[in-house]
Amino acid sequence: xxxxxxxxxxxxxxxxxxxxxxxxxxxxxxxxxxxxxxxxxxxxxxxxxxxxxxxxxxxxxxxxxxxxxxxxxxxxxxxxxxxxxxxxxxxxxxxxxxxxxxxxxxxxxxxxxxxxxxxxxxxxxxxxxxxxxxxxxxxxxxxxxxxxxxxxxxxxxxxxxxxxxxxxxxxxxxxxxxxxxxxxxxxxxxxxxxxxxxxxxxxxxxxxxxxxxxxxxxxxxxxxxxxxxxxxxxxxxxxxxxxxxxxxxxxxxxxxxxxxxxxxxxxxxxxxxxxxxxxxxxxxxxxxxxxxxxxxxxxxxxxxxxxxxxxxxxxxxxxxxxxxxxxxxxxxxxxxxxxxxxxxxxxxxxxxxxxxxxxxxxxxxxxxxxxxx
Length: 373
Hints:
Layout: H1 3-9, H2 49-62, E1 70-74, H3 77-88, E2 94-98, H4 105-114, E3 118-122, E4 138-142, H5 154-163, E5 167-171, E6 189-193, E7 207-211, H6 214-227, H7 233-243, H8 246-264, E8 271-274, H9 284-290, E9 297-301, H10 305-314, E10 319-320, E11 330-333, E12 346-350, H11 356-372
Parallel strand pairs: 2-3, 2-4, 4-5, 5-6, 10-11
Antiparallel strand pairs: 1-7, 6-7, 8-9, 9-12, 11-12
Helix pairs in contact: 2-7, 3-6, 8-11, 10-11
């Protein structure tokens, strides 16, 4: 089955006469429950039919054809990240995180350390996390990294980790299941913020965890129940609806990102250009060996903060907004948040689904206007 067909059909229930192809969201705090609670749906914090269909769909995308794959959905990407880390480790354990990953990871690090967990960090590039892996309980990989877009060799890190009895989780947010399948690369967990490219419209928050080990999945699911970090049924339904266009969106967004990166290459006012899909990118060789698409995000640095701000203000087709993966292009001066080790003029650009020539023209026009000012 092709990727587009799979995306369109993923998680749909068996066809029944007079019933919708994708049933609407189930809004229920409780269910009819006579006698002993033997059925799948008992209480709204435990499970929901709308989650069930979405989780089945995500499993089909992250691990096509694999039996026993389980997905657990969450209220946000950070809820999913926290669930894996906090359900699998305990006081005295060691966790290895990237030091150039998502901005909220340092917050997780502080919480882990408060619980007595030792946290070690190393950069994504050069597979540097291998150097601090000895004795760890869990290795957290983010590839491509956000926002710097470095890539590590997932297979190499997984092999080294498993040889030492270390669990491996891969943040697959930027790549999406159509760009990279961490479970096929040997990871124990694929984790992502469905807020971004998976759902692609910038109108909901969602997170998920996928794994093939039933015991690991049970611990993640138990954590969700304990902390109540559950997705709303409307968000789950919207996410499932959005999956049907995942391939269409991904293909256009990745094509736009590559075209934009090529257009920016060689400009005097652009430095530090990164996009794994560029043959000259430092990460391209590794990325090409484990990714099928290179994502919608391009990063680059403009001369200074003021230059970057003027560039963003000049854009007409691009929103000055955080997050990424939407059908509407967005960009931001990432340094405005603090926490990322980036220059003041660093731009994280998320290519949307606009016509390629329009998007590239808008970016080049904006840069030209700033340069001429």
